[in-house]
């Protein structure tokens, strides 16, 4: 079939335009806030004799030697001198035109990073231009770019946008004066074209007043967006789920334990939210083992007693199955119809579950991402619970909620998000301003703190002896490995290999194996054997990271602990310490350790406080990766820093309230300049 001809009114997109679009640069306003990541000082020439390794510098000199060398590998080598000294230049990848540019006798201007060579200073892959041209009188901006898009092209496009775009201020003069903010147009022009007297360090370290204005604007736009999301939610309609109290009371009577004061407080907060005619949007935070599942069960009971369906979505099949088993044991004796749906159940079972969900017979549905498939239909879904919500993709968090929005009344389900990764205060202020947050800040009685030990892998035999001792006392142990199969790159101990070695080294013990590549039925069988005490030592990957609850397991060995993230280590450690005996987590590492790995292991050794762990984790990873949204391709904060700009966050919150109340038109203009389609992303 012949391709259809281009419409006459459609302008073909050039290669450069496609690359600019890849950076999110389409309209002049996009280019205006595409700010430099650093600056190059091309305003002066320094003598070669003054160069020191580690600095970035610009020199001029005459080429006295230029050749292609073949040892130790093919490279272009040149030597220049300026009367004060000589400087070696090297290119490991080069074009013939570069060789011509460096012909002996030519005078060139060279800029690059200086390093120590075999016979003095050298530069590798420096920037080379013809000597003698006028020097710029200001710092040269360097912008975020993409492969194949030159800085010179980007600079021209940004300069054109600066002439075309509306740079009028979106902030009222009162707010600018109160927070001592420079005008927007002035800030933008200073950052794109710094005048000669601007401090280089202030620009690089984002300490200049122009940067402060930009950070304020970015945080203000975010706070305006979150406030708008909250206001919009309060205008939405949801089924009030007051319940009659009977099912909730019956569940409380049946539980084999009493709720902690923190759990009772959180249950009351959720009970109040569910009884409202607008959708609940609450984040339930609780450290590992604090008892979030029973809080979710009580919320589900209140909704079911109101005649509604409840869906609980978990990130792994093991966790979904554990929720199913625990909630079934609590609620099925009370007459609640519970089903579970994962990708691995057979076609016949899937049809039966689908029919029960669509008819309303199934009151509580527990599953994995299988719940958000197009063919899955609910009769009247009014409460959605997301467990470990940060482990779902941005879109997945919305899809399940939309399953309850079908129908002419367009009612929105209530939503409860649960997380065992506590959200640090600055992060909560910045990204969760539209959420109500509940915190379970105490552990159930009888829990003893887990003792954490750091052990080099050269002491493996001692660790194995400790495992044997623990099993002889009638207890069980986990042995966690980072990979399933051998990796030639990482050369790490693997679950399969470790299982084989432990079976050989500990012939008197029953050693099991579970990992993500096992069939679901096999995985469930192994976990059940471990629960029932038919397995002494369970070798596992991180499939047991969340939700697994074996009170008799009192020892965990984490192989190559330096390869795990801080939040992951904290979650894994939370799988033990669920009984009354002292539990021990052994972090076995391989030396030498990187600085980040050392920081992670030190944090695990020093504290078991989930909020402190989360604070340190945020420092190391940044908000995007911490919240599980890095894969979205959108940056949460481009200019502001949660570590250093908490004061600006508070100011932006106050300014957002004032602008929404007194300056709504300017608030909308500010959102249009800064958010540009990111509002929905933030609300997830």
From TrEMBL:
<dbReference type="GO" id="GO:0016887">
    <property type="term" value="F:ATP hydrolysis activity"/>
</dbReference>
<dbReference type="Pfam" id="PF17191">
    <property type="entry name" value="RecG_wedge"/>
</dbReference>
<dbReference type="InterPro" id="IPR004609">
    <property type="entry name" value="ATP-dep_DNA_helicase_RecG"/>
</dbReference>
<keyword id="KW-0347">Helicase</keyword>
<dbReference type="Pfam" id="PF19833">
    <property type="entry name" value="RecG_dom3_C"/>
</dbReference>
<keyword id="KW-0067">ATP-binding</keyword>
<comment type="function">
    <text>Plays a critical role in recombination and DNA repair. Helps process Holliday junction intermediates to mature products by catalyzing branch migration. Has replication fork regression activity, unwinds stalled or blocked replication forks to make a HJ that can be resolved. Has a DNA unwinding activity characteristic of a DNA helicase with 3'-5' polarity.</text>
</comment>
<keyword id="KW-0413">Isomerase</keyword>
<dbReference type="GO" id="GO:0006281">
    <property type="term" value="P:DNA repair"/>
</dbReference>
<dbReference type="InterPro" id="IPR033454">
    <property type="entry name" value="RecG_wedge"/>
</dbReference>
<keyword id="KW-0234">DNA repair</keyword>
<dbReference type="InterPro" id="IPR001650">
    <property type="entry name" value="Helicase_C-like"/>
</dbReference>
<dbReference type="InterPro" id="IPR027417">
    <property type="entry name" value="P-loop_NTPase"/>
</dbReference>
<comment type="similarity">
    <text>Belongs to the helicase family. RecG subfamily.</text>
</comment>
<keyword id="KW-0238">DNA-binding</keyword>
<dbReference type="InterPro" id="IPR014001">
    <property type="entry name" value="Helicase_ATP-bd"/>
</dbReference>
<keyword id="KW-0547">Nucleotide-binding</keyword>
<dbReference type="InterPro" id="IPR011545">
    <property type="entry name" value="DEAD/DEAH_box_helicase_dom"/>
</dbReference>
<protein>
    <recommendedName>
        <fullName>ATP-dependent DNA helicase RecG</fullName>
        <ecNumber>5.6.2.4</ecNumber>
    </recommendedName>
</protein>
<dbReference type="InterPro" id="IPR045562">
    <property type="entry name" value="RecG_dom3_C"/>
</dbReference>
<keyword id="KW-0378">Hydrolase</keyword>
<dbReference type="InterPro" id="IPR047112">
    <property type="entry name" value="RecG/Mfd"/>
</dbReference>
<feature type="domain" description="Helicase ATP-binding">
    <location>
        <begin position="273"/>
        <end position="440"/>
    </location>
</feature>
<keyword id="KW-0227">DNA damage</keyword>
<keyword id="KW-0233">DNA recombination</keyword>
<dbReference type="Pfam" id="PF00271">
    <property type="entry name" value="Helicase_C"/>
</dbReference>
<dbReference type="InterPro" id="IPR012340">
    <property type="entry name" value="NA-bd_OB-fold"/>
</dbReference>
<dbReference type="GO" id="GO:0003677">
    <property type="term" value="F:DNA binding"/>
</dbReference>
<dbReference type="GO" id="GO:0043138">
    <property type="term" value="F:3'-5' DNA helicase activity"/>
</dbReference>
<dbReference type="Pfam" id="PF00270">
    <property type="entry name" value="DEAD"/>
</dbReference>
<dbReference type="GO" id="GO:0006310">
    <property type="term" value="P:DNA recombination"/>
</dbReference>
<dbReference type="GO" id="GO:0005524">
    <property type="term" value="F:ATP binding"/>
</dbReference>
<feature type="domain" description="Helicase C-terminal">
    <location>
        <begin position="463"/>
        <end position="619"/>
    </location>
</feature>
